[in-house]
Specification:
β22 (about 610-615), α24 (about 630-645) and β23 (about 650-655) form a beta-alpha-beta unit. An 8-stranded parallel beta sheet has the order 1-14-13-12-11-10-8-2. It has about 775 residues and is an alpha/beta fold. The protein starts with a strand and ends with a helix. The radius of gyration is 27 Å and the shape is globular. The chain folds into 3 domains: about 65-80 and about 115-150 and about 160-245, no CATH class; about 245-400, TIM Barrel; about 405-450 and about 490-500 and about 545-770, TIM Barrel (Alpha-Beta Barrel). About 45% of the residues are buried. It binds glutamine (GLN) and zinc ion. Zinc ion binds near residues 615, 655, 657, 679 and 740.
Length: about 775
């Protein structure tokens, strides 16, 4: 029985890689330094895993930016626009970073490659670009170098490669007329070349990441799987090939796996999909090793040993012990590094810390499970099991987790709490009487520039260098300036600017019961960017008002309407580590009730427009379409619980970031927000297509310019976009707004862009007047 690890966090437990990369990019440190930091992290990770007792230790799970981009470089899948840069750039890492981040220097203006989410995680990868006549050849030898590097340290690792089929499926065709899977025969020789070199160095196991094996596959894709592994195995019969799947069950492809897939080991995710175990055991030949992913690689809770041992016991009914491996469910890339670093964190009680486990601790859990399974009666290791059982019993009974009041409220939710008093048509009349907004009303999405200064104040305040009174004074001043400026430029619905918020989820989490915050619980999001998700450990409730003071203060400064600004329940859930002892849907309802209380308070305090942001609604969609309806039902219900408490004349807005929701537009309509603002300036046409197919019933603000770039739009192009939108959406339904919050922008460009936007709205109103006269 082997212990197996799929991948380890590579940012360093103190985010050393983040710091080193950013210093290198800004020219403050050398190439040599960055390379050395990478080397240190790899060494530390390998030794840690070795000392923990992991048998199959991964290599090439390290990356300076992204493992999919690494694979593109290995295969020489470098788009032409970067090849032209190769001369300009001094070393291969610079070419790599240019692909990841773009290159605007010395007369070059090359955009970055596209980035997208890694399945349903918050990790983002760089999307490979494919062209019909593209050639592939071994370009970077990273995987080979790292295997050798570990070997020098006395560790024979298991190199990790993105499997050929999944690599192609992760990418995008950049020209018409072919399908990416057809490139399989072109990339295969490069894989063979890489394996050959690994073989020469004495590799035993190679891990091929094939997460698509757990999703729906076409006939050609299945065929590709079959041929690829037949070819690999027949070329290198002595090398052991492991194929890893995660985040979904493999049952849909079970006959492909059991009849046609020539591999030596299969890894399955038993945390997300425990129900697949039985079928896999029945159908997959016991000749193939089975790696049981029993330790949650995506959450921060201690494993329940007894539950995992039951899976292993079940497996042993079907096959011998030596064909079973024990592993985390997926790469530990998605876990924070080390719980030990939280020992000085007094914000989390030791009871709650006792329930947690980060990447380093998960390694020990894997090893302990193996020892527990193999041990005989009376073995001292059994104490670990007893202790683990005790912790979980105590957790189940802990007052920190279970708040009977919250449970009662959840229980009492009925139809009436999830619908507005009247239909949108009726509400719209009431709102127009109450709010008196012009045609094409203008607004923003909430945040205004979070300048260095603003962030500096918060930093000083948190450190205790400035008093709360002084901090509040500074924020008040900033709000006042922002309100004045919005009045001057002539926006119709104002916002306070969100200067008091560090992050749209953390700000609320910090004020809600049931949340805890780690100090070093960083997880890589993309490149050097890391997030530190809040931890939801118990019943969520709102002990105090959260946004009323700042919002009413802002409203008191102006006779114009100020929009209250909240983060929605689905987004708070989606961007946190969530308790695993009750369904996510229940936790989401608890958050929804807390937000509902805040919405009610805002209304009672005279706020007439309230925005509840749900940028993460789309990304919570399950990987398999068959599960979409179930998710959407509870996610949308949660939004309605938080928003439906208001009277007809109070206007509810929501905002979503990614424009890729054409396929769920009908569900978004069911949220029944009075106004939805969406990101779509980068793919305006695509979104409008959806409106051609589906008549969106309520008001909508299709973002009129892209806030992700510093470029300033002019009024004419905004008018043009709105004119296009008018072909699909009646003008009475249209709002004019940027496509997202402005916190990452500077003031100068923000002012110019919004001036153009307001001027566009004025001209549009004029032209309507002219035509009706
Ligand atoms: N109200 C938020 C802001 O303006 C929305 C951010 C988001 O959509 N991610 O910053
Ligand atoms: Zn947004």
């Amino acid at each position: 029985m082997l212990t197996n690890n799929l991948g380890y966090p590579r940012i360093g437990s103190k985010r050393e890689l983040k710091k080193a990369s950013e210093q290198y990019w800004s020219g403050k440190s050398t190439y040599k330094n960055l390379v050395q930091v990478g080397k240190n992290i790899r060494k530390e990770n390998w030794l840690l895993q070795k000392n923990s007792g992991i048998d199959l230790i991964p290599s090439n799970d390290f990356s300076f930016y992204d493992q999919v981009l690494d694979m593109s470089l290995m295969l020489g899948a470098i788009p032409k626009r970067y090849k032209e840069l190769a001369e300009e750039l001094k070393n291969p890492l610079d070419l790599y970073f240019a692909m990841a981040r773009g290159y605007q220097r010395n007369g070059y203006d090359v955009t970055a490659m596209e980035m997208t989410k890694w399945f349903d995680t918050n990790y983002h990868y760089i999307v490979p670009e494919f062209y019909e006549n593209q050639d592939f050849k071994l370009f970077s030898t990273k995987v080979i170098d790292e295997f050798y590097e570990a070997k020098q340290l006395g560790i024979i690792t298991k190199p990790v490669l993105i499997g050929p089929v999944s690599y192609l499926l992760l990418g995008k065709e950049r020209e018409k007329g072919f399908e990416k899977i057809q490139l399989i025969n072109k990339i295969l020789p490069v894989y063979l070349e890489i394996i050959e070199k690994l073989n020469d160095l004495g590799v035993e196991w190679i891990q091929f990441e094939e997460p698509f094996l757990a999703l729906d596959l076409s006939k050609e894709e299945k065929e590709a799987f079959k041929e690829v592994y037949l070819k690999l195995k027949s070329s290198f019969p002595k090398i052991k090939i492991m194929v890893t799947t995660y985040f979904e069950a493999v049952v849909n492809n079970i006959s492909l796996i059991s009849n046609d897939l020539l591999v030596d080991a299969l890894h399955i995710d038993l945390v997300r999909c425990p129900e697949q175990l039985e079928e896999v055991l029945e159908k997959v030949s016991s000749r193939i090793h089975l790696s049981l992913g029993v330790i949650d690689g995506r959450n921060i809770w201690k494993n329940e040993y007894q539950k995992s041992l039951n899976y292993i016991t079940k497996a042993v009914e079907y096959r011998t012990k030596d064909t079973i491996m024990i592993a985390p469910s997926c790469s530990l890339l998605h876990s924070p590094c080390d719980l030990d670093l939280e020992s000085s964190n007094t914000n989390i009680s030791s009871e709650i810390k006792g329930w947690m486990s980060f990447a380093k601790q998960k390694l020990s859990e894997v090893v302990t499970l193996k020892q527990l399974f193999l041990c005989k009666e009376g073995d001292p290791i059994l104490v670990a099991l007893e202790e683990n059982i005790k912790i979980h019993i105590e957790k189940k009974q802990s007052k920190q987790i279970h708040n009977p009041e919250v449970k009662e409220r959840i229980h009492a939710i009925n139809e009436n709490n999830t619908v507005r008093k009247n239909s949108f048509t009726f509400r719209k009349k009431e709102q127009s009487k109450e709010l008196k907004l012009p045609l094409f009303p203008t607004t923003t999405i909430g945040s205004f520039p979070q300048t260095k200064e603003v962030r500096g104040w918060r930093y000083q305040f948190k450190k205790g260098d400035i008093s709360a009174e002084y901090y509040n004074e500074l924020i008040s001043e900033e709000i006042k300036k922002t309100i004045r400026w919005q009045e001057e430029v002539g926006l119709d619905v104002l916002v306070h600017g969100e200067f008091e918020r560090n992050d749209m989820v953390e700000y609320f989490g910090e004020q809600l019961d049931g949340f805890a915050f780690t100090k070093f619980g960083w997880v890589q999001s993309y490149g050097s960017r890391c997030v530190k998700p809040p931890v939801i450990y118990g019943s969520v409730s709102r002990p105090n008002k959260m946004t009323i003071d700042w919002t009413t203060y802002a409203q008191s400064l102006t006779t114009k309407l100020v929009k209250g600004m909240l983060t929605g329940p689905v987004t708070i859930l989606q961007w946190s580590f969530v308790r695993n002892d009750q369904p996510r849907s229940i936790t989401c309802k608890e958050i929804a009730l807390a937000i509902r209380d805040e919405v009610k308070d805002l209304e009672e305090n005279g706020i007439k427009i309230i925005q509840i942001d749900e940028p993460a609604l789309r990304e919570g969609l399950p990987l398999q379409q068959k599960d979409w309806a179930g998710y959407l039902a509870w996610a949308i219900e949660a939004f309605r619980i938080s928003s439906s408490v208001v009277s007809n004349s109070t206007q509810i807005h929501t905002h979503m970031c990614y424009s890729e929701f054409n396929d769920i537009l009908d569900h978004i309509a069911l949220m029944d927000a009075d106004v939805i603002t969406i990101e779509c300036s980068r793919s305006q046409m695509e979104l409008l297509d959806a409106f051609a197919d589906f008549e969106y019933p309520n008001d909508i603000g299709p973002g009129v310019y892209d806030i992700h770039a510093p470029r300033i739009p002019n009024a004419d192009e905004i008018i043009e976009l709105i004119n296009k939108a008018q072909q699909y959406v009646p003008e009475e339904q249209l709002w004019i707004n940027p496509d997202c919050g402005l916190k990452t922008r500077g003031w100068q460009e923000t002012k110019k862009a919004l001036e153009a936007m307001v001027s566009a709205a004025l001209q549009l109103r004029e032209s309507v007047l002219e035509t009706t006269e």
